[in-house]
From TrEMBL:
Domain PH intervals: 1-93
One Pfam family this sequence matches: PH
Cited InterPro entries: Boi1/Boi2-like (IPR045188), PH-like_dom_sf (IPR011993), PH_domain (IPR001849)
Name under which the protein is recorded: PH domain-containing protein
Gene Ontology biological process terms, A to Z: endosome organization; receptor recycling; retrograde transport, endosome to Golgi
Keywords: Golgi apparatus, Membrane, Phosphoprotein
GO cellular component terms given for this protein: cytosol; early endosome; membrane; recycling endosome; trans-Golgi network
Localisation: Golgi apparatus, trans-Golgi network membrane; Membrane
PROSITE patterns: PH_DOMAIN
Length: 205
């Protein structure tokens, strides 16, 4: 994923637009898209970051490496922030492994995963509200907004479930069980989409 985000630089320059690229679990930023070939201005490995959302500014998100670095970011819109959060969360969930938990410690790893679940819960509530709002327009469902909102909702559900599965794997490893619990993510997402389509069909009758 790539696109423009505002990055907080300092109190003198404030928020500055930067071109961000998320690839292979690394978030890099450049002064502009045209200057991307000249090398990035900075980068961070998503798997070592805590992803925080601002409850007041719905375009704001912060990447925090505890005790080391803070990257304060703002998206062009709440919808763009949701897309970035889902992409960042997916990259984080895919890169982290049980091996990582052995390096940073079981308790710290589990705590980070719980923080991620809280983040995804907040996103899910926002996206469910967006789906309901798009489906209950006075003139009928806004299909364009509904497709976008349901796509974001599905992505967040996928990431939420993968994170929950990681927590189960961590606890399985800690308790010494041999077979970790696996969650059938595709089936859950398929059922969610089926139920959503059924609900919309009933509303438009």
């Amino acid at each position: 994923m790539e696109g423009i985000l505002w990055k907080w630089t300092n109190y003198w320059n404030g928020w500055q637009t930067r071109w961000f690229v998320l690839e292979n679990g690394i978030l890099s930023y450049y002064k502009s898209q045209d200057e991307a070939s000249q090398g990035c201005k900075g980068s961070v490995k998503v798997s070592v970051c805590q992803i925080n959302v601002n409850n007041i500014d719905n375009t704001r998100m912060d990447l925090v490496i505890p005790g080391q670095q803070h990257m304060y970011l703002r998206a062009p819109s709440p919808q763009d922030r949701q897309k970035w959060l889902v992409a960042l969360g997916s990259a984080k969930a895919c890169l982290e492994s049980i091996v990582d938990s052995k390096v940073i410690g079981f308790e710290d790893s589990l705590s980070d995963k719980k923080s991620e679940l809280h983040l995804y819960c907040d996103l899910l509530m926002q996206q469910v509200h967006a789906v309901k709002s798009a489906a209950s327009q006075e003139t009928g469902p806004d299909m364009e907004k509904l497709d976008e909102a349901s796509s974001l909702l599905k992505s967040t559900c996928d990431t939420f479930i993968r994170t929950l599965e990681d927590i189960m794997k961590y606890t399985t490893t800690a308790t010494g069980n041999i077979t970790p619990f696996e969650i059938p993510v595709p089936n859950i997402c398929k059922n969610m989409k089926t139920n959503l389509n059924r609900s919309l069909s009933q509303e438009t009758r």
